[in-house]
Amino acid sequence: MLHGRKILLIIGGGIAAYKSLELIRCFQKRGASVVPVLTKAAEEFVTPLSAGALAGNKVYRDLFNLTDEAEMGHIELSRAADLVVVAPATADLMAKMAHGLATDLASTLLMATDKPVMIAPAMNVKMWEHAATKRNLETLKHDGIHICGPDEGGMACGEFGMGRMAEPEFIASAASDVLLNGPLKGKHILVTSGPTHEPIDPVRYIANRSSGAQGSAIANALIALGARVTFITGPARADMPIGCVIERVQTAGEMLKAVEKTLPVDGAIFAAAVADWRVTSASDSKIKKNKSGDLPTLSFAENPDILATVSQMKKQRPKLVVGFAAETNDVIDNAKAKLARKKCDWIVANDVSPETGIMGGAENDVTLITPTDTLDWPRMSKDAVAQKLAAEIAKALK
Ligand code: CTP
Fold this sequence. Notes:
Number of helices: 14
CATH architecture of the largest domain: 3-Layer(aba) Sandwich
Radius of gyration: 24 Å
CATH topology of the largest domain: Rossmann fold
Strand content: 15-25%
Structural class: alpha/beta
Number of strands: 22
Number of domains: 2
Distance between the termini: 19 Å
Shape: globular
Bound molecules: cytidine-5'-triphosphate
Largest sheet: 8 strands, mixed
Helix content: 25-40%
């Protein structure tokens, strides 16, 4: 699907550089041709020979030489591509890009290009979380640079966390979406995510085990397809999606207000694990132990059902409303009943029994139920579920 497209692949100097060799293959598999550019540091990790042999193209290296300049100058090189991909994008390369430095071939090409640029950051978790990297990331997003990843996981340095380069397949498909302009371009989609916290008193609350990982993955997948996403999230542990508007809320009531404020939208995906009840007698001060040993009693009120409210709106109902059904038994029957009761268009059913390890885990096993189909997808990563769902949403909102 990328036949005839040219990708300038800038390989930065990090251990993830070895994955960029696989990335060349992923682009080629899609029909694109790749021109690799290696930074000086990248040559410590992969050889120009391997990158050139895989790409079947001349490799451009940091050593400016007269022959290269005579064959193709850096301006021409930066413009000959349809897309510039930087993978791995090290903290150093991101900093150079954010500050407009042109001190080597890679950074000069990035300054000179008039084509879309996508980066796949990869670095140690502390470097990723560093305030300077965060500032640079914001600047790059503001400059319209497409960001792919990073992922969470074990790193070569032995630490664990955010900073691992996204998988080559994922980078290649995100790059394809940029090149193909994204089927969700021009669509505004709202995604709710995470748990809600319902206060008991100023220091205690009722919550649930949702990590928000599936919601973040869905937002990222929709963004990758070109959607404008508003992400409304309770206090989630998962990383926030990159490249969208994020509204943070605590309670179900606040989540409903944030959703209503965001309407109208083209699509709404309700992935949040909203608390069904709130404490009516929530105290303004910390509830103290009673000397006589009496135990406190909590009374509950039902929270608004955000999904049902939006699904049944007369005005401003989004064209596509998707709910989730977190079930522990009779998953499909319960999910179908939920779809009918709440009047959403689709429901994504999943079994959240503790033995499945789905709630709080990295994988999901879902069935997408629409009025006409019941699509039982095999167990896969939450990112993969998100990409499949985003693809279905793109078809429905065409
Ligand atoms: N939902 C919502 N507002 C609520 C409760 C749920 O928007 N107050 C949404 C969830 O985001 C999800 C769907 O409704 O998309 C189903 O949530 P789930 O927790 O599975 O169902 P419940 O409505 O809580 O129903 P039950 O208690 O019968 O399982």
